[in-house]
Each structure stands twice: as C-alpha cells, then as structure tokens.
Automatic annotation (TrEMBL):
UniProt domain DUF8141: residue ranges: 2-63
Species assigned in the record: Natrinema altunense
Name the record gives this protein: DUF8141 domain-containing protein
Keyword Transmembrane among record annotations: yes
Domain of life of the source: Archaea
Pfam short name (any one): DUF8141
Length: 65
C-alpha cells in the first residue's frame, strides 16, 4: 500500500490521504467525544485537527526530499 501511494504523483497522494484521513478523524472524534464529556460535533472537529497531523508530516517528508 505504501509503495502504491508513493508511485502516484504528489498531488494525488495528498488527495488520497485527505480522503482517507479526514473522514476517519472526524468519525473517530465524533464517536469518542461523549466518553470524554465533549460535544460530539466538537469531537469531530478535534478529530479533523488530529487527522491533519499525518498529512502535514507527509508534506514535510516530501518537502525535505
């Protein structure tokens, strides 16, 4: 999977990662928020913020090459 992603152009890599990480981060935050006494919508927002970190690391890795 990792090699398949690296074989794509960088622009497509970003779109693919965003399509995977953003819904995953939002849904995870939305579902975990009530157990942390947070409003579910805010949990979704926090999940989106947390999901942006791997994407940012991917961009930084590409920029350092």
């Amino acid at each position: 999977m990792f090699r398949w992603l690296q074989s794509k152009p960088f622009q497509q890599q970003i779109v693919i990662l965003a399509l995977i990480l953003d819904p995953l981060g939002f849904s995870t935050g939305y579902l975990l928020a009530p157990s942390l006494d947070i409003d579910p919508l805010m949990g979704g927002v926090y999940g989106l913020i947390a999901a942006s970190f791997p994407l940012s690391m991917w961009v930084l890795r590409y920029a350092s090459q």
